[in-house]
Amino acid sequence: MLNKELKVLVIEDNPEISLNIADYFEQYRAIMDFADNGELGLELAITQNYDCIILDIMLPKLDGLSVCKQLRQRAERYTPIIMMTARDSLADKREGFGLGADDYLTKPFDLEELWLRCNALAKRYLQPIQSNLNVGPLQLDYQRKQVTREGHPLKLQPIPLQILSILMQAHPTVVSRSELCDKIWGDDHTDSDALRSHLYQLRKMTDKPFANPLIKTIHGIGFCLDIPSEFSE
């Protein structure tokens, strides 16, 4: 758990769901703000500082996907987002992750699980990262949360960036699927579709614009970086 009180924004138009979240989070002394439509939620998210945002997809005035997209484009400070929706298809999750969501929880959900995921995300983004990392054609600037390949900037969302960081730190070792999940979500594993979607986004930005793919799947084992020979020492 975090030592500080968690400040959470809930963007949800169902008052019963918002009340249930508020009642459960109150026992942990969380500071809560609520918005019952997307426009108000986006305004609060941009003008206030939160440790985590719980965002429903189906919202009046501005839907959750649009809120997520605009928040990532306009906000100066990064705030982790948990998408909350009754839609459970891989395509929906892929769209949400592609727009900048960090996690995805399907209704009906367990309140304890929601709280644990909020804590895990908030803790992850409060941890300072200090050094840079270079592996083959990849350069990762932890302070700026920026990565380049052969000098070309790669626009990665936070979870794909974290996956790439794990693979870079482990290179040339193979990282198993379960180890990736442990390092990203801790004990609060999300479903397998989430990791699959984030890997898809990572490959889309890291590999597809270039001649040689770097993210390699070792079937039945895990994932590693496949560094071209010209970048080997």
TrEMBL record:
Q: Which Pfam families match?
A: Response_reg, Trans_reg_C
Q: Does the keyword Phosphoprotein apply?
A: yes
Provide the transmembrane region boundaries: none
Q: InterPro entries recorded for this chain?
A: CheY-like_superfamily, OmpR/PhoB-type_DNA-bd, Sig_transdc_resp-reg_receiver, WalR-like, WH-like_DNA-bd_sf
Residue ranges constituting the OmpR/PhoB-type domain according to the UniProt record: 130-227
Q: Which GO terms describe its molecular function?
A: phosphorelay response regulator activity; transcription cis-regulatory region binding
Highest taxon in the source lineage:
Bacteria
DNA-binding positions: 130-227
User: Taking every annotated instance into account, which residue ranges of this chain make up the domain Response regulatory?
Assistant: 7-122
Q: Which residues carry this modification: 4-aspartylphosphate?
A: D56
> What name is this protein filed under?
Response regulator transcription factor
Query: Taxonomic lineage of this organism?
Result: Bacteria, Pseudomonadati, Pseudomonadota, Gammaproteobacteria, Alteromonadales
